[in-house]
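TL;DR need structure tokens for one chain.
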Amino acid sequence: MTQAINEIIPPTTEPDVALTLRLPVEAQDYRNAMAKLAAAVNIITSTGENGWCGFTASAVSSVTDSPPTLLVCIKRTVQAHGTIAVSGVLCVNTVAGPQEELAMTFAGSGGNKDMAQRFAGGDWTQLVTGAPVLTGAIVNFDCRVTSVSTIGTHDVFFCEVLAVAGQDTVESGALIYFDRKFHAVA
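>> reply
TL;DR here they are.
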């Protein structure tokens, strides 16, 4: 296999001066590099015995379409983590450009940890699981957690998608997180 790859892409003898190689990869270098990976902005919501909870996340990805499954990476110190772990339900609400302020609120802007105040900024409904579903989001994935893996400081929640809702056409644009800032894109 190595020979075939070397025939297609010959190894270089001189280092690329445009690259800065850092080995081993330090945590801050990794975070700086990940800041360059653009991602959709999502408000992850759940419900439990203490009511609704939620936070803003970009670490969401599709896993498979059979059964429809996505993953959400959640730091174990996030306020909503315990509720999601116990209730086993969540909704991934992919926010539209005009919902940037709401995304900031759910990110804890200004130190806001009051869930009632966070949810007061949006219109909400429910689908199958009872988790809050943001009206006007680009798309909503209502899910039940099927498994959890622990890696470092985070848990990776694998979630079967039980219902999908959202806009048929997206006229307001999407919101992405890139270079540690939100950016509206058409």
